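for the writeup, i need someone to sanity check this before i put it in the appendix. the sequnce is what the collaborator sent (i think, or maybe the updated version? ugh). structure was predicted straight from it, no edits. if anything looks off just tell me and ill rerun, i have time this weekend
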Amino acid sequence: MRPIRPRTRALAAALVGLSVAACGCTGSPGAASAAPGAAPGPAAAPATQVPQAARERPETAGATETARRDPALPAPGEAIPKDPVRLARALTGTAERLRQAIDDWRREGNPAEGRAPEPVALLALYQQRVYRYLARHPETAARTYARLPKAVAGPAKADVTAIRKLLTLVHPVSRPARFRVKEPEPADVLLGHFRHAERRFGVEWEVLAAVMLVETKFGRVRSPSHTGAKGPMQFMPRTWEAYGMGGDVHDTRDAVLGAANYLHASGAPRNYRRALYAYNHSWAYVDAVLLHARQMKRDIRNYYAYYNWQVFVVTTRGERRLTGP
């Protein structure tokens, strides 16, 4: 079946992770307000809605108390160093602690149930915030990379580059965008959906996970985009009718299968760039998705770190975080 051409749309909120949730399947980039750090431009209509409490996002008592108990854990609003030497030190330490926290979670916890432990959530959030800062300050980023160990510099540069590319697709709004958000399904439940879709359609699970990361921060953003894209993989209605196989666009398992079906019909796994461009008519989007996918392919711990990246909204007065500790 011939793929349906994507309709124009804006990256919305999971980028939001960047500060907006991407407007998913079948749409080209446009202005959005909740994106990784959007480039200035005319304000776009809010894509989603979230309660006032979520928009204000105070630090939770539990996260704050954990940070007090363990000085190695950054508080949710921990200040980000501006000096490259201190930034490199902070990133190196965060990478080491996050790696260990993820290993502990997978070995001693249960990623198939409930939320991530607070050490994982706090360290991943801090990592994400530092990357977002570096994405907006390329000169500082270059000086920071030069001071990082090779094992940290490569992943940091890849993630910052992906965030910077996504930010070019987003325009801040003058007033905070409203988003409906919710907790994502457990990390290993999502991983099961991705791997099931890979077995059925041959589309690598890391690519599917990267699409969901960019589109809705693993399902945290639940509102449709301002162009009408819906569900955790952000499908336009006509595309869902063609590739959703009769499923529910809001059901995570069905949405992941539909995305794999669409990407396969559009050229994956033979040509991921072509398939992802069909999903979203933006080469910046394609590059960002593939950068994140390669990171997960290199080390599955990156999937668990990305799973804990949060939703931000970009306004003309700065970013606001909608989810997380």
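Residues 1-23, 27-68 have pLDDT under 50 and may be disordered. The chain has two domains: 15-54+172-299+311-321, 58-167.
thx in advance!!
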